[in-house]
Amino acid sequence: MEYVTAVPHPRSEAAEPARTGRRSLAVALLFGALGAAVALLASRQRWAEGTASVAGGAFPLTAKGSDVTGVPAALAIVGLAALVAVFAVRRAGRFLVAALLALSGAGIMAAALVSASDSTALDEKAAQASGDTTATVAALSHTGWPYVAAVGGLLILLAGLLALRFGSGWPAMSGRYERGTDRPRKTARPVDPERPEEIWKALDRGEDPTGA
């Protein structure tokens, strides 16, 4: 009669952290890369539009995300670099890089949300178009792209938090690529004097292979 026990197998217990590490690594890579792409794309889109009063009437004005603020695009690039650097460092260095990744995402979110209703860029364009330094934009409206950039920042933030939580178990760059690491040298095999090729070499040197 066979008995079934509820005790988990040791091998399955040891494999669970490895599976968790692989899943968290895949999700962090996806979130980090996707978040940076979304933030960069959103920074190139139209965030605000309005008009300026000129001699010929109302002059249409538009402002892209990069005109309003350059922070999201810059931090997206920093986040990508930090995402790659996570695998090149270990221990405390990995923790610091993961923190930088999370802070990059938080910075993108903050900059995008603060700039969602900003009119400074369009006011400057209105002053240039009208020739009046005190002119401001009229009929001001905003698009949803700043919030898209904030979503990209959120994804980068989540990638950084995953790296902080599970990064210690992720693989690192192979040691053979690290500077100053010497490869192990192969030890030479001992010479067998009884081998035919060694006997012929001894005869060529004028030695007696029999040792007599």
From TrEMBL:
It comes from Streptomyces graminearus. Keywords: Membrane, Transmembrane, Transmembrane helix. NCBIfam families: trp_oprn_chp. The chain crosses the membrane at residues 25-43, 70-89, 96-116, 144-164. This is TIGR02234 family membrane protein. Residues 176-212 are annotated as: Disordered. The lineage of its organism: Bacteria, Bacillati, Actinomycetota, Actinomycetes, Kitasatosporales.
